[in-house]
Amino acid sequence: MSRFPYLRQDFAASIVVFLVAVPLCVGVAVASGVPAELGLVTGIVGGLVTGLMPGSSLQVSGPAAGLTVLVFEAVSEFGVATLGVIVLIAGLLQLAMGFLRIGRWFRAISVAVVEGMLCGIGLVIIAGQIYAAAGLKAPETGIGKIIGLPGAFADALGSTEALTSLAIGAGTVAVIVLWKKLPKKVQAVPGALAAVVLATLASLAFSLPVVTVQVEGLLGVIQPPGADAFGELATPAIWGTIVAFALIASAESLFSAAAVDRLHDGPRTQYNKEMIAQGAGNTVCGLLGALPMTAVIVRSSANVQAGGKTKASRVLHGVWILLFAAALPSALALIPLPALAGILVHAGWKLIPFRQIAELWRDHKGEALILIVTAVSIVAVNMFEGVLIGLALAVIKTAWEASHLKLEVIDKGAGPIQAYLSGNATFLRLPKILGSLEALPQDRPVELDLSGLHHLDHACRTALESWAERHSAPDTEPVKVTTAQPAKATAP
């Protein structure tokens, strides 16, 4: 026992994490448009491969709701057979980023963009899973899912089967929400697991007409990518999906690591090593044709709260998933699909950062706007392009705020007009600079002092030189430009 001083705590925590993970693994797989067992395969790899590697000692990896939208889009466009190649190459990219020590740079990503990404994903998940809960086919686009909801509800009202299915989904959400209000001893059983068990028992007891999970067997769904799948790499479009998988999975994992570090007093996350661990896990998942993995905050926080002390808890949780998938695969066939849809509706709701949006709107309206635009872009376009739009807005906002510029004009009525520029002159401020300078009278000598500038980019320098050359009237002295260095800058 001296070699494993925390075995008892880790063993107990692993059971809790296993119970939390199973319904989420299955639900994410079904929502992603792949066999349920593939979600379990990714959970097993997250425990047995990523769990054994250094990086973050207590966070737990597996299939995540945050990637559901992207995986579904990839499967719809390229097929399940190509998913393994996408995940494999994304994992290799993560490994490369880890070895190149890029992991820590993910901490520099704007929080507003990350929160906006989660918000957009949450909205798409909720909208899509409402259709699944009612047993209806969802539109393909995010905006289509949201716009089509009133019609979907109208269709459901006219069908007893759809209403029954929707009731099971709504009941699942209600159980998860209300479970937290029960005594602590009861909460030892995770709410999502309790909701799935209750929904399954209800559908069996009353012979409800609901669709259940299709089971193919663990070995039956593992399909290493073949030559045809690798041939898809010649398609340029697939590389955008691969990069999106790698970047979004990495960002989600490393932000999760930062959140988990705040929950415990143990060793801090080593970000580059965690990136390597995530890359190794996704490489293995790709070779098995499984779902991509990220660190999952729900499982990770459950691990910490259940008393996990070392990585043994997450490794053991992978062992339990493996034993469950091998010994009891037929149990999956009893689970109603609307119950899994209810779990994901709740997971999507948890992804929407209501408190952060309110705080940002109160204190940093620019950041709140980036969050909202990122979320709306993900719903209206797709996840990858939505995140790129958010990142571009964050960069523009930062550049704008960094280019503080002050123009002071002193006109004593006689002699030259003196104009002083101070701060940072970038191309973003050119309209303001040139507008003010062009308003100066052309029949008076002008002295432009640039010595107060901390930064003058090439675009501004060229524009100011051009203005100085053309500003003065023919019978007026040319504009005199003074810089921090001895100036060559007088117009000819």
Automatic annotation (TrEMBL):
The GO annotation for biological process reads:
transmembrane transport
Q: Where is the composition biased (Basic and acidic residues)?
A: 468-478
Q: Where is the SLC26A/SulP transporter domain?
A: 7-374
Query: Cellular component GO terms, alphabetically?
Result: membrane
Signal sequence segment: none
Q: Which UniProt keywords apply?
A: Membrane, Transmembrane, Transmembrane helix
Keyword Ribosomal protein recorded: no
Q: So where does this one cross the membrane?
A: 12-31, 38-58, 78-100, 112-132, 162-179, 191-213, 233-255, 276-298, 318-347, 368-396
- One Pfam annotation reads Sulfate_transp
Localization per Swiss-Prot or TrEMBL: Membrane
Q: Where is this region: Disordered?
A: 468-492
Q: How does it sit in the membrane?
A: Multi-pass membrane protein
Q: What is its main location?
A: membrane
Report the protein name in the record: SulP family inorganic anion transporter
Organism, scientific name: Streptomyces cupreus
